[in-house]
Amino acid sequence: MSLTYELILRIIVGGALGGIIGIEREKRAKEAGFRTHFLVALGSTLISVISAYGYDKVADIIPIARYDPSRLAAQIVSGIGFIGAGLIIFQKNVIHGLTTAAGLWVTAAIGIACGVGRYDLAIVTTIMVLIALELVMVIDRKLNKRQLSITMTTADKDKITKFVNSVKADGAVLRAYDLEVLDEGEGKVYKATVELSTKSIDYEERAWDLLEGMDGKIMSHKK
Hints:
Layout: H1 3-27, H2 34-53, H3 56-61, H4 70-87, E1 89-91, E2 94-96, H5 98-115, H6 119-143, E3 146-154, H7 157-169, E4 173-184, E5 187-198, H8 203-210, E6 215-221
Antiparallel strand pairs: 1-2, 3-5, 3-6, 4-5
Helix pairs in contact: 1-2, 1-5, 1-6, 2-4, 2-5, 4-5, 5-6
C-alpha cells in the first residue's frame, strides 16, 4: 500500500471511530452528537497526518533541530479545550456537559492515534469509551432506583428552599433545579421544578409530606 492510500485510510478510520462515539452521544440526546465527534476526530487525524508527513520538504531546508513534527499535533489537545469549555454550562443549579466535553477530548486523542498509524490503540480506546458511557448509565439506573420530577408553586420562596434542603438532607441526588417567578396579581408566585434521584423505592410519600403547604404540586416518574 502506498503512503498516500495509507494516510487516507488513517483519516477514514479516525473519522469513523469518532462517529461511533458520536452516535452513542446522540442517542442520549447530548449537546454534541455524531457530526461534532466525527468532525473532531477527522480534524485531529488530518492535523496529525499533516504534522508528520506534510512538511517533508521543509525538513530538507530547516535544520533538524528546529523541525519538530509533533508541535502542530500538540496544539490539538489545547485547542479542543475551547470546544469543551463551550459545552460545559451551569444550568438549573447543576453542571451539565462535563462528560460530553471529556468525550470530545478523548475523541481528539483517538484521531491523533489514527493519524500516527496506531489503529490498535485508537480502536481499544474507542471500545473503552463506549463501555464507560454505557456502564455509567447502567450503574446509575441500578443505584438510583427512583427518578422523580416535582413541580410546585408557592408565594413563599423560603418553602422551596426548605424543601430542597430537606431533599438533600435525605440523601437524594438533586439532578436539576429550576426556579421561575410568576407575576400573578399584586404578589409574586414562585414556581419550582426539581428533578431528583433517590435510592429509596418509596420516597414519593416522603417527598409529598415535604410539599405540605405548596400549591400546584405535581410529581411524576422519569425514566
